[in-house]
Amino acid sequence: MRTEDFDYELPSGRIAQEPVEPRDACRLLVLDRLSGQIDHRTFADLPEYLSGGDVLVVNETRVLAARLRGAKDETGGAVEVLLLRERYEDTWECLVKPGRRLKPGVHIVFGDGELKGLVLDTIEESGGRLIRLTTQEGSVRDAVRRLGEVPLPPYITRTLENPELYQTVFAREERSAAAPTAGLHFTEELLGRIEACGVRVARVQLDVGIDTFRPVAEEDPRDHHIHSEHMRVSERAASDIREARERGGRIVAVGTTVVRALESAYDAETQQVRPFEGQTDLFILPGHRFGAVDSLVTNFHTPRSTLLMMVSALAGRELIMRAYESALDEGYRFLSFGDAMLIR
Protein backbone atom coordinates (compact mmCIF):
# COMPACT_ATOMS: atom_id res chain seq x y z
CA MET A 1 0.00 0.00 0.00
CA ARG A 2 1.38 3.40 -1.06
CA THR A 3 0.09 6.90 -0.45
CA GLU A 4 0.26 7.61 -4.18
CA ASP A 5 -2.41 4.94 -4.65
CA PHE A 6 -4.86 7.46 -3.17
CA ASP A 7 -3.87 10.38 -5.34
CA TYR A 8 -5.94 11.97 -8.08
CA GLU A 9 -6.06 15.32 -9.89
CA LEU A 10 -8.56 17.73 -8.35
CA PRO A 11 -8.97 20.91 -10.41
CA SER A 12 -9.30 23.99 -8.19
CA GLY A 13 -12.50 24.92 -9.99
CA ARG A 14 -14.16 21.80 -8.59
CA ILE A 15 -13.64 22.85 -4.97
CA ALA A 16 -16.97 24.24 -3.79
CA GLN A 17 -16.66 27.68 -2.19
CA GLU A 18 -20.21 27.86 -0.84
CA PRO A 19 -23.03 25.41 -0.17
CA VAL A 20 -26.09 25.05 -2.35
CA GLU A 21 -29.47 26.25 -1.11
CA PRO A 22 -31.47 24.46 0.06
CA ARG A 23 -28.90 22.12 1.57
CA ASP A 24 -30.46 18.91 0.30
CA ALA A 25 -30.50 20.18 -3.31
CA CYS A 26 -26.89 19.10 -3.77
CA ARG A 27 -26.07 16.08 -5.89
CA LEU A 28 -25.75 12.56 -4.50
CA LEU A 29 -23.60 9.85 -6.08
CA VAL A 30 -24.90 6.44 -4.97
CA LEU A 31 -22.27 3.71 -5.00
CA ASP A 32 -23.32 0.07 -4.60
CA ARG A 33 -20.39 -1.84 -3.12
CA LEU A 34 -21.62 -5.26 -4.26
CA SER A 35 -22.54 -4.55 -7.88
CA GLY A 36 -20.26 -1.57 -8.46
CA GLN A 37 -23.22 0.35 -9.91
CA ILE A 38 -23.08 4.14 -9.77
CA ASP A 39 -26.24 6.25 -9.81
CA HIS A 40 -26.52 10.02 -9.90
CA ARG A 41 -29.29 11.45 -7.75
CA THR A 42 -30.12 14.44 -5.55
CA PHE A 43 -29.46 14.41 -1.80
CA ALA A 44 -33.16 14.88 -1.12
CA ASP A 45 -33.59 11.36 -2.59
CA LEU A 46 -31.66 9.81 0.32
CA PRO A 47 -34.79 8.40 2.06
CA GLU A 48 -35.31 6.11 -0.94
CA TYR A 49 -32.15 4.24 0.06
CA LEU A 50 -33.11 3.83 3.73
CA SER A 51 -35.46 1.27 5.25
CA GLY A 52 -37.57 1.09 8.38
CA GLY A 53 -35.43 -0.31 11.18
CA ASP A 54 -32.22 1.35 9.95
CA VAL A 55 -30.35 3.77 12.20
CA LEU A 56 -28.86 6.96 10.77
CA VAL A 57 -26.00 8.08 13.01
CA VAL A 58 -24.99 11.77 13.00
CA ASN A 59 -22.23 13.74 14.70
CA GLU A 60 -23.91 16.52 16.69
CA THR A 61 -20.74 18.46 17.49
CA ARG A 62 -20.83 22.19 16.76
CA VAL A 63 -17.96 24.26 15.37
CA LEU A 64 -16.46 26.62 17.92
CA ALA A 65 -15.74 30.21 16.87
CA ALA A 66 -12.15 29.15 17.32
CA ARG A 67 -10.18 31.75 15.33
CA LEU A 68 -9.10 34.64 17.56
CA ARG A 69 -7.28 37.75 16.38
CA GLY A 70 -5.25 39.60 18.99
CA ALA A 71 -1.96 41.31 19.74
CA LYS A 72 1.10 40.67 21.88
CA ASP A 73 0.70 42.65 25.08
CA GLU A 74 4.35 43.79 25.13
CA THR A 75 4.77 44.93 21.51
CA GLY A 76 1.30 45.16 19.96
CA GLY A 77 2.31 42.78 17.18
CA ALA A 78 -0.62 41.05 15.50
CA VAL A 79 -1.32 37.46 16.53
CA GLU A 80 -3.80 34.92 15.16
CA VAL A 81 -4.74 31.97 17.36
CA LEU A 82 -6.74 28.92 16.29
CA LEU A 83 -8.11 26.90 19.21
CA LEU A 84 -7.80 23.19 18.47
CA ARG A 85 -8.39 21.22 21.64
CA GLU A 86 -9.04 22.08 25.28
CA ARG A 87 -6.41 20.14 27.20
CA TYR A 88 -7.48 21.39 30.62
CA GLU A 89 -10.07 23.91 31.77
CA ASP A 90 -9.49 27.14 29.75
CA THR A 91 -6.10 25.80 28.55
CA TRP A 92 -5.98 25.07 24.83
CA GLU A 93 -3.74 23.46 22.27
CA CYS A 94 -3.56 26.08 19.51
CA LEU A 95 -2.08 26.89 16.16
CA VAL A 96 -0.62 30.39 16.05
CA LYS A 97 0.54 32.98 13.49
CA PRO A 98 3.29 34.08 13.56
CA GLY A 99 4.64 31.11 15.47
CA ARG A 100 8.36 31.68 15.84
CA ARG A 101 8.12 34.65 18.20
CA LEU A 102 5.38 33.33 20.47
CA LYS A 103 7.55 31.79 23.14
CA PRO A 104 6.41 30.61 26.59
CA GLY A 105 5.66 33.58 28.80
CA VAL A 106 4.26 35.83 26.05
CA HIS A 107 0.93 37.51 26.89
CA ILE A 108 -1.73 38.00 24.20
CA VAL A 109 -4.64 40.46 24.34
CA PHE A 110 -7.88 39.86 22.43
CA GLY A 111 -10.51 42.51 21.77
CA ASP A 112 -10.25 45.37 24.24
CA GLY A 113 -8.61 43.12 26.78
CA GLU A 114 -11.75 41.25 27.81
CA LEU A 115 -9.93 38.03 26.90
CA LYS A 116 -6.24 37.37 27.50
CA GLY A 117 -3.92 34.50 26.75
CA LEU A 118 -0.65 33.31 28.25
CA VAL A 119 1.64 31.04 26.20
CA LEU A 120 2.58 28.18 28.50
CA ASP A 121 4.52 25.87 26.24
CA THR A 122 5.53 24.95 22.69
CA ILE A 123 4.05 21.76 21.25
CA GLU A 124 6.93 20.28 19.31
CA GLU A 125 4.86 17.71 17.40
CA SER A 126 2.53 20.21 15.72
CA GLY A 127 4.48 23.45 16.11
CA GLY A 128 1.53 24.85 18.03
CA ARG A 129 1.30 26.39 21.47
CA LEU A 130 -0.39 25.58 24.76
CA ILE A 131 -2.24 28.76 25.81
CA ARG A 132 -4.18 29.50 28.98
CA LEU A 133 -7.11 31.88 28.45
CA THR A 134 -8.48 34.17 31.14
CA THR A 135 -11.19 36.80 31.35
CA GLN A 136 -12.04 39.35 34.00
CA GLU A 137 -15.80 38.98 33.63
CA GLY A 138 -17.96 36.03 32.61
CA SER A 139 -16.68 32.74 31.23
CA VAL A 140 -13.85 32.18 28.79
CA ARG A 141 -16.26 30.33 26.49
CA ASP A 142 -18.59 33.33 26.31
CA ALA A 143 -15.68 35.64 25.53
CA VAL A 144 -14.50 33.31 22.75
CA ARG A 145 -18.01 33.29 21.25
CA ARG A 146 -18.08 37.09 21.20
CA LEU A 147 -14.60 37.62 19.81
CA GLY A 148 -13.94 34.52 17.73
CA GLU A 149 -14.64 33.64 14.12
CA VAL A 150 -15.75 30.26 12.78
CA PRO A 151 -12.69 28.81 11.02
CA LEU A 152 -13.14 27.52 7.48
CA PRO A 153 -10.96 24.92 5.74
CA PRO A 154 -7.89 26.40 4.02
CA TYR A 155 -9.24 25.56 0.56
CA ILE A 156 -12.32 27.77 1.06
CA THR A 157 -11.11 31.23 0.14
CA ARG A 158 -14.38 33.16 0.09
CA THR A 159 -15.75 34.88 3.17
CA LEU A 160 -18.87 33.20 4.52
CA GLU A 161 -21.49 35.86 5.24
CA ASN A 162 -23.60 33.51 7.34
CA PRO A 163 -21.43 31.33 9.64
CA GLU A 164 -24.43 29.06 10.32
CA LEU A 165 -23.96 27.64 6.83
CA TYR A 166 -20.90 25.86 8.27
CA GLN A 167 -22.97 24.27 11.05
CA THR A 168 -25.21 21.21 10.74
CA VAL A 169 -28.89 21.47 11.65
CA PHE A 170 -28.30 18.96 14.47
CA ALA A 171 -25.22 20.73 15.89
CA ARG A 172 -25.26 21.25 19.65
CA GLU A 173 -22.27 21.72 21.95
CA GLU A 174 -19.41 23.82 20.57
CA ARG A 175 -16.38 21.55 20.59
CA SER A 176 -14.91 21.27 17.09
CA ALA A 177 -12.40 23.18 15.00
CA ALA A 178 -14.11 22.00 11.80
CA ALA A 179 -17.58 20.84 10.82
CA PRO A 180 -18.58 17.20 10.25
CA THR A 181 -19.28 18.22 6.69
CA ALA A 182 -21.31 15.22 5.50
CA GLY A 183 -24.00 16.45 7.88
CA LEU A 184 -24.21 19.84 6.16
CA HIS A 185 -26.55 18.41 3.49
CA PHE A 186 -29.39 17.67 5.90
CA THR A 187 -32.38 19.93 6.50
CA GLU A 188 -34.94 19.64 9.28
CA GLU A 189 -37.53 18.71 6.66
CA LEU A 190 -35.33 15.91 5.27
CA LEU A 191 -34.67 14.54 8.76
CA GLY A 192 -38.43 14.50 9.34
CA ARG A 193 -38.99 12.52 6.13
CA ILE A 194 -36.28 10.04 7.14
CA GLU A 195 -37.80 9.47 10.58
CA ALA A 196 -41.25 9.11 9.01
CA CYS A 197 -39.86 6.12 7.11
CA GLY A 198 -39.20 4.34 10.40
CA VAL A 199 -35.51 5.22 10.49
CA ARG A 200 -34.15 6.17 13.89
CA VAL A 201 -31.62 9.04 14.14
CA ALA A 202 -28.88 8.43 16.71
CA ARG A 203 -26.46 11.12 17.82
CA VAL A 204 -22.79 10.74 18.75
CA GLN A 205 -20.04 13.29 19.32
CA LEU A 206 -16.55 13.46 17.87
CA ASP A 207 -14.60 16.70 18.17
CA VAL A 208 -13.26 17.37 14.69
CA GLY A 209 -9.67 18.66 14.66
CA ILE A 210 -7.96 20.74 12.00
CA ASP A 211 -5.61 17.82 11.25
CA THR A 212 -8.49 16.27 9.34
CA PHE A 213 -7.38 18.43 6.39
CA ARG A 214 -3.71 17.41 6.57
CA PRO A 215 -2.59 15.24 3.62
CA VAL A 216 -0.46 12.17 4.22
CA ALA A 217 3.18 13.03 3.46
CA GLU A 218 4.73 9.63 4.10
CA GLU A 219 5.21 7.24 1.16
CA ASP A 220 3.62 4.44 3.16
CA PRO A 221 0.38 5.62 4.85
CA ARG A 222 0.99 3.15 7.67
CA ASP A 223 3.88 5.42 8.74
CA HIS A 224 1.53 8.40 9.09
CA HIS A 225 0.75 9.61 12.62
CA ILE A 226 -3.01 9.95 12.88
CA HIS A 227 -4.41 12.74 15.03
CA SER A 228 -6.31 12.01 18.23
CA GLU A 229 -9.84 13.31 18.76
CA HIS A 230 -12.24 13.22 21.70
CA MET A 231 -15.41 11.22 21.13
CA ARG A 232 -18.52 10.08 22.97
CA VAL A 233 -21.01 7.33 22.16
CA SER A 234 -23.83 7.49 24.71
CA GLU A 235 -25.71 4.54 26.17
CA ARG A 236 -28.79 5.65 24.22
CA ALA A 237 -26.94 5.71 20.89
CA ALA A 238 -25.28 2.36 21.58
CA SER A 239 -28.66 0.88 22.54
CA ASP A 240 -30.32 2.17 19.36
CA ILE A 241 -27.56 0.58 17.29
CA ARG A 242 -27.72 -2.75 19.13
CA GLU A 243 -31.51 -2.92 18.75
CA ALA A 244 -31.29 -2.13 15.03
CA ARG A 245 -28.77 -4.91 14.49
CA GLU A 246 -30.97 -7.36 16.35
CA ARG A 247 -33.87 -6.43 14.05
CA GLY A 248 -31.73 -6.76 10.93
CA GLY A 249 -31.49 -3.00 10.35
CA ARG A 250 -28.46 -1.26 8.88
CA ILE A 251 -26.20 1.29 10.56
CA VAL A 252 -25.77 4.27 8.23
CA ALA A 253 -23.00 6.63 9.31
CA VAL A 254 -23.20 10.28 8.33
CA GLY A 255 -19.59 11.22 7.73
CA THR A 256 -16.15 9.80 8.39
CA THR A 257 -16.16 11.23 11.91
CA VAL A 258 -19.12 9.00 12.79
CA VAL A 259 -17.35 6.00 11.25
CA ARG A 260 -14.31 6.70 13.38
CA ALA A 261 -16.40 7.04 16.53
CA LEU A 262 -18.48 3.91 15.98
CA GLU A 263 -15.58 1.70 14.93
CA SER A 264 -13.64 2.94 17.99
CA ALA A 265 -16.57 2.00 20.24
CA TYR A 266 -17.07 -1.41 18.62
CA ASP A 267 -16.24 -4.43 20.76
CA ALA A 268 -15.12 -7.26 18.47
CA GLU A 269 -15.59 -9.85 21.20
CA THR A 270 -19.27 -9.07 21.80
CA GLN A 271 -19.77 -7.74 18.25
CA GLN A 272 -21.57 -4.71 19.64
CA VAL A 273 -21.09 -0.97 19.85
CA ARG A 274 -20.57 -0.08 23.50
CA PRO A 275 -20.97 3.26 25.26
CA PHE A 276 -17.61 5.00 25.26
CA GLU A 277 -16.10 8.41 25.99
CA GLY A 278 -12.45 9.25 25.53
CA GLN A 279 -9.76 9.79 22.90
CA THR A 280 -9.50 7.85 19.65
CA ASP A 281 -6.53 7.66 17.33
CA LEU A 282 -8.04 4.96 15.13
CA PHE A 283 -6.60 5.12 11.60
CA ILE A 284 -8.85 3.22 9.18
CA LEU A 285 -6.95 1.92 6.15
CA PRO A 286 -7.83 -0.70 3.53
CA GLY A 287 -7.81 -4.04 5.30
CA HIS A 288 -9.81 -2.75 8.25
CA ARG A 289 -12.66 -5.07 9.20
CA PHE A 290 -15.77 -2.95 9.80
CA GLY A 291 -17.91 -4.09 12.68
CA ALA A 292 -20.21 -1.15 13.40
CA VAL A 293 -20.93 0.52 10.06
CA ASP A 294 -22.87 -0.84 7.08
CA SER A 295 -23.32 2.25 4.89
CA LEU A 296 -21.82 5.73 4.74
CA VAL A 297 -22.97 9.18 3.68
CA THR A 298 -19.84 11.19 2.92
CA ASN A 299 -18.41 14.04 0.90
CA PHE A 300 -15.66 13.87 -1.75
CA HIS A 301 -12.27 14.15 -0.07
CA THR A 302 -8.89 15.65 -0.87
CA PRO A 303 -6.23 13.56 -2.62
CA ARG A 304 -3.81 11.58 -0.42
CA SER A 305 -5.94 12.16 2.68
CA THR A 306 -6.74 9.84 5.58
CA LEU A 307 -10.43 10.34 4.75
CA LEU A 308 -10.03 9.07 1.19
CA MET A 309 -8.18 6.08 2.62
CA MET A 310 -11.05 5.41 5.04
CA VAL A 311 -13.75 5.35 2.35
CA SER A 312 -11.46 3.14 0.26
CA ALA A 313 -11.32 0.75 3.20
CA LEU A 314 -15.12 0.52 3.14
CA ALA A 315 -15.74 0.22 -0.60
CA GLY A 316 -12.37 -0.79 -2.05
CA ARG A 317 -9.79 1.54 -3.56
CA GLU A 318 -10.49 0.72 -7.20
CA LEU A 319 -14.23 1.23 -6.83
CA ILE A 320 -13.77 4.51 -4.95
CA MET A 321 -11.35 5.86 -7.54
CA ARG A 322 -13.81 4.90 -10.29
CA ALA A 323 -16.58 6.72 -8.42
CA TYR A 324 -14.38 9.81 -8.06
CA GLU A 325 -13.58 9.70 -11.78
CA SER A 326 -17.30 9.51 -12.53
CA ALA A 327 -17.99 12.44 -10.19
CA LEU A 328 -15.37 14.57 -11.91
CA ASP A 329 -16.72 13.64 -15.34
CA GLU A 330 -20.27 14.54 -14.23
CA GLY A 331 -19.28 17.93 -12.80
CA TYR A 332 -19.72 17.22 -9.09
CA ARG A 333 -18.54 19.79 -6.55
CA PHE A 334 -15.89 18.56 -4.12
CA LEU A 335 -14.85 18.91 -0.46
CA SER A 336 -16.63 20.54 2.49
CA PHE A 337 -19.33 22.54 0.66
CA GLY A 338 -19.51 20.11 -2.24
CA ASP A 339 -21.79 17.27 -3.23
CA ALA A 340 -22.24 13.95 -1.44
CA MET A 341 -21.79 10.22 -1.89
CA LEU A 342 -23.76 7.33 -0.43
CA ILE A 343 -21.76 4.11 -0.13
CA ARG A 344 -24.25 1.30 0.36
Key terms:
344 residues; alpha+beta; QueA-like; Thrombin, subunit H; 9-stranded mixed sheet; 6 helices; globular
Order of helices and strands: EEEEEEEEEEHEHEEHEHEEEEHHE
Strand coverage percent: 25-35%
Query: What distance separates the N and C termini?
Result: 24 Å
CATH class of the largest domain: Alpha Beta
Q: Please give the order of strands in the largest beta sheet.
A: 2-1-19-18-14-3-12-13-17
Percentage of helical residues?
Answer: 10-25%
CATH homologous superfamily classification of the largest domain: QueA-like
Integer tally of domains = 2
Number of helices: 6
Largest sheet geometry: 9 strands, mixed
Basic shape = globular
The total count of strands amounts to 19
- Which fold does the CATH topology of the largest domain refer to? QueA-like
Global mean pLDDT: 94
Question: What is the SS-derived class?
Answer: alpha+beta
CATH architecture of the largest domain: 3-Layer(aba) Sandwich
